[in-house]
Design a protein that fits this description.
The chain is α/β, with parallel strands linked by helices. It has helices spanning 17-28, 40-52, 68-82, 112-133, 150-153, 159-179, 207-212, 222-229, 243-249, 251-257; strands at residues 8-12, 32-37, 59-62, 87-90, 142-146, 185-190, 240-242. Helices cover 43% and strands 12% of the residues.
Length: 265
């Protein structure tokens, strides 16, 4: 039996990249999965890969997390299929493909429609997942929001994407404290570096970013994701976990370095 046997887990943005790798890793540990993303054909491909990894074939629900009704449908279908939600991974997020243009390197030169679009998915979408999924989750469950080191380093050029990830950090800190009475742990998980996915558009990561940050494989975060979803991470909440760091340092050192459990007061 895998460490996630019997757990009903939702993964958004599961059609590619980090979400795909996480879903397949969860399937290999026996999880009962529901996969959400905007493109159903890609979700079906990932569902096949999850089944090949040894798990039951996941339920697929086409979902745009920026749409409240679609997030509600994702949660409703999960409850109808499994009767509970033990783990929710808010992974879906976007960036923009024109990072080589100067106006997307400095905050003062962005176009408003780009800022609104990135905030709509990364911030409002993650908040909608919290708003709708957390009240439906089982006590003692785990909510995992996908973050980024860029939201903490905030180096020049990190841009609006980094600001949205900083906002996710803040939301997780607050929600972890709010959910403490129900012992639902809420944490941020980051790969620990850049991953070359379609997050940056159909052409992948821009070359200048690859030169600054050699890309990591999406699978780098799977061991940490499995740990945060499992009972072994009980009591760990309000923390920021880097997949790369987790793999290098191990569970006990990472656990000791994380924020203390949120108080009930």
């Amino acid at each position: 039996m895998g460490v996630l046997e019997g757990k009903a887990i939702v993964v958004t943005g599961a059609s590619r990249g980090l979400g795909e790798a996480t879903a397949i890793g969860f399937a290999g540990e026996g999880a009962s999965l529901v996969l959400g993303a905007r493109t159903k054909d890609d979700l079906e491909r990932v569902a096949d890969a999850c089944a090949a990894a040894g798990g039951a074939r996941p339920l697929v629900v086409a979902t745009d997390i920026a749409d409240e009704g679609q997030v509600q449908d994702l949660v409703d279908q999960t409850l109808a299929a499994f009767g509970r939600i033990d783990v929710f991974v808010a992974n879906a997020g976007i960036s923009y493909g024109e990072l080589t243009e100067k106006r997307y390197r400095e905050l003062t030169t962005y176009d408003l429609d780009i800022v609104e679009g990135v905030f709509r998915t990364n911030v409002f979408g993650t908040w909608l997942c919290m708003k709708i999924a957390l009240p439906a989750m089982a006590d003692g469950g785990s909510f995992i929001a996908i973050g980024s080191e860029t939201g903490r380093a905030l180096y020049p050029g990190a841009g609006i994407y980094a600001i949205t990830k900083s906002t996710i950090d803040a939301m997780v800190t607050l929600v972890a404290r709010e959910q403490a009475p129900r012992q639902i742990r809420v944490n941020v998980l980051s790969p620990g570096g850049m991953v070359d996915t379609k997050l940056f558009g159909p052409n992948g990561m821009p070359e200048f970013l690859k030169q600054q940050h050699p890309p990591l494989p999406a699978e780098v975060m799977v061991p940490a994701a499995v740990w945060l979803a499992s009972n072994d991470s009980a009591g760990t909440t309000g923390g920021f976990v880097s997949g790369k760091d987790f793999n290098a340092r191990g569970v006990e050192e990472i656990r000791a370095s994380l924020a203390v459990p949120a108080h009930h007061g």
